[in-house]
């Protein structure tokens, strides 16, 4: 609708209202469509189970949307990172869940000030080795047989440490090989690996060492190309809500609902 036609509609609307006639202006698609929120499948952050998309990211975002009284929204899982970013670049999605900060992505994504999660990579060992293996510095791991997944970045310091590192083709091989005694220690994404170990009944056999070897803040970000009608209002409110959820334990409680009470609060998962 052009500016001129909008002005004409408003003129007749005023006239009809003055005559006691109800006149309803058409609602633009941007005003009527749901908020589109996308992410990659990775339990326990977000995944589909029994036809329902659930997870830590989903529950946090639902709590934010409830605070803002937004009820018209749709969560979508996409098959690849390339598709996820393409949809955001083109405005096919409005919000992307859980991305780390990246200068390249900032060209087409609006990052909030507040991160909702602090995710990390940690070394895992067999529980029976708790008395003999600890980690504060890479020198503590001298003489150990370390397993790692080929193609994973971890940190440059890890790959350049001069330690006895053997690579395997897939990340999901590391825990089984660790428990069989093939490796003494392996680096893993803490949250996803702990959840998977719990689901497989293996968590009691593992210990995740602290401090992490890598830690990064993760954000729920807006597509700059999004034309969602409530975008500016959402962005104004979001940081204050996430900050409050961090301080009042809302986010910690959501994480604990998936990982149990032995995890997040004691190991500084949310900021």
From TrEMBL:
A Pfam match: SBP_bac_3
Solute-binding protein family 3/N-terminal domain ranges (all copies): 35-262
Database matches in Gene3D superfamilies: Periplasmic binding protein-like II (3.40.190.10)
Transmembrane domains' residue ranges: none
Top-level taxon in the UniProt lineage: Bacteria
SMART domains from the UniProt entry: PBPb
Keywords: Signal
Protein name from the UniProt record: Amino acid ABC transporter substrate-binding protein
Source organism of the structure: Thalassospira marina
């Amino acid at each position: 609708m052009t500016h001129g036609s909008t002005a004409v509609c408003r003129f007749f609307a005023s006239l009809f209202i003055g005559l006691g006639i109800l006149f309803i202006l058409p609602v633009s698609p941007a005003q009527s469509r749901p908020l589109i929120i996308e992410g990659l499948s990775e339990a326990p952050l977000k995944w589909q189970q029994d036809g329902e998309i659930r997870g830590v990211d989903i529950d946090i975002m639902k709590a934010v949307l409830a605070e803002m009284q937004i009820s018209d929204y749709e969560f979508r899982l996409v098959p690849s990172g390339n598709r996820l970013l393409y949809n955001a670049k083109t405005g096919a999605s409005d919000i992307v869940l859980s991305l780390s900060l990246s200068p390249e992505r900032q060209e087409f994504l609006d990052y909030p000030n507040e991160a909702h999660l602090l995710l990390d990579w940690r070394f895992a060992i067999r529980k029976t080795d708790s008395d003999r293996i600890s980690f504060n510095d890479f020198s503590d791991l001298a003489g150990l047989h370390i397993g790692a997944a080929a193609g994973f970045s971890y940190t440059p310091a890890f790959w350049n440490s001069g330690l006895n590192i053997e690579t395997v083709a897939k990340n999901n091989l590391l825990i089984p090989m660790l428990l069989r005694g093939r490796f003494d220690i392996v680096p893993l994404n803490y949250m996803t690996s702990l959840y998977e170990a719990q689901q497989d009944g293996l968590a009691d056999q593992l210990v995740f060492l602290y401090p992490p070897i890598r830690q990064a803040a993760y954000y729920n970000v807006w597509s700059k190309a999004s034309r969602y009608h409530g975008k500016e209002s959402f962005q104004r409110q979001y940081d204050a809500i996430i900050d409050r959820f961090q301080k009042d334990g809302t986010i910690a409680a959501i994480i604990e609902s998936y990982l149990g009470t032995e995890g997040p609060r004691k190991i500084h998962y949310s900021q």
